[in-house]
Amino acid sequence: MAQIPKRALLSDRTCSIAPELLGSLPQSTPDAFRLAVCVLHELSLGPQSRWAAYLQHCPPETVPIALLWPDGGKPVQIIQGTELHAELERIGISNVSEPATEPGGSRMVSERP
Question: Measured between alpha carbons, how far is residue 105 from residues 69, 87, 101, 111 in Å?
Fold first, then answer.
């Protein structure tokens, strides 16, 4: 097992605007939003960013997130029997092959062409 120091991880506490960010955003601000602000700031710094080498290896395009895949599609079929499938079931998302719907009955995940 390896230990990775927290200061070696890009987060809202380690980015170059951490003091300003932590002081200006309400504590109720979602972690994903805080991290997005940090990543955008570090990207704007370019080569001057402490995280430049890391960020240049991140994919420039949107990477699909498994929990947002259209239900019943090929990606969902691929995960059947994997650790991801087991983890989704563990956290209570057991119907990964059934369409997710909103209370009004419309699909929560839109199909992409």
Answer: 18, 26, 5, 15
pLDDT of residue 46: 95
When comparing pLDDT for 49 and 91, which is higher?
49
Q: What is the reported pTM? A: 0.55
81 and 103 within one domain? yes
Where in the sequence is the domain holding 47, given as residue range(s)? 6-55
Q: In terms of domains, do 108 and 71 share one?
A: yes
| In contact, 100 and 109? CB cutoff 8 Å | yes
User: Residue 58 in contact with residue 41, Cβ under 8 Å?
Assistant: no
pLDDT in tens, 63-104: 766 656 666 566 667 777 888 788 877 877 656 554 444 444
Whether 45 and 74 map to the same domain: the answer is: no
77 φ, ψ to 5°?
-65, -35
Number of domains in the chain: 2
Distance CA 66, CA 14 (A): 27
